[in-house]
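Recall from the previous lesson that a structure prediction takes nothing but the amino acid sequence as input. Here we apply that procedure to Bifunctional DNA primase/polymerase from Catenulispora yoronensis. The sequence below is the only information supplied.
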Amino acid sequence: MTQRSASLTIALALAQLGWHVFPLSPGTKGPLANCKRCDPKTQPAHQIETCACIADGAWCHGVRAATTDPARITAWWRRAPHAVPGIAAGPSRLVLIDIDTHGEELPDNHATALLPGIDLRTELIGEAAWRDRSAFRTGRDSLNLLARLRGGRNPWPSDAAHQPLVVTTPSGGTHLWYRAPEGVTLHQALASTRRALAWKVDVKAGWSYGVAPGATTTAGTYTITSGTPASIGHMPDWLTGEVIRVASSEHRDTTPAPTRATATSTASADRGTRYLLAVLNRGDTQLREQRGKEGRKQRLAALAYQAGGLIHLTTLTERDVIDRLTDTGIASGINAKKAENIARSSLANGQRRPLTIRS
Ligand SMILES: [Zn+2]
Ligand SMILES: [Zn+2]
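The prediction returns the following tokens.
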């Protein structure tokens, strides 16, 4: 079988199971380039929701073009036979737990860095379970620590209902594909930020994506080692809880929110919330119209800074606003990790300079 037909075969087989597919570059694993009309380098960005290209069957806007339509998928691979199928997590109702095995050293503050949002020194777990830094070499080690802490006696039930699709990546990492929990909106949570599930363990959900199981990039093949795409199990309850903790906008940060004026009446907090939401909506539109990658990053930073100045007047949490800003950044074409970093740091800067709304 040629490379070309293998990619298309995988894409069609997964699409038939309801997995939303779109083409990735085999080298960078990023989406294929937009058409000229949708190219943010030469054209003002526009609303993805109303972009004619996607309706016309183009692959513009990456994950946002993902589809289960076999005719569209076949046409894409006819045009780009070497493309690698990517899977849009949220539309496919999947969650990808992405366990990394290489990269940076364990940070010095490993009592708080191993499981972001959890201070191991305050947990009912013996120091022996985590004190030895050399015991943590990959994301598997940190995820197993989380399982030990939150997963009870049998953290990884082996019955069919809990069976993930397990994939070994070319770099030796592991992908666990699970069915997404119902009734909750998830976002990605990356190991490079405070929001990871565990050190070197990312959550890909919502508008984030992963390389399709079985697909081959220039780095190698994403090999299925257990489970089947046709029957993906759900996460054990403790893991669902932890994924919601780090990857849902309903999540409330464990670090105390910056103090809000106690005199703020509900009415004025509502007014502040409406005002900030209006600012974010306007910023969203402006960012899509902004030309050039650097320009968009600067505009996102300015928007996040302004939001940071206003958040104390609202009923929104930092997490709500960072999620919203990150989504705005991603929708305008900024890399997801970059968007979240900009949102988080600029929001924090803005919070140091609280603004007031003039009546
Ligand atoms: Zn477009
Ligand atoms: Zn286009």
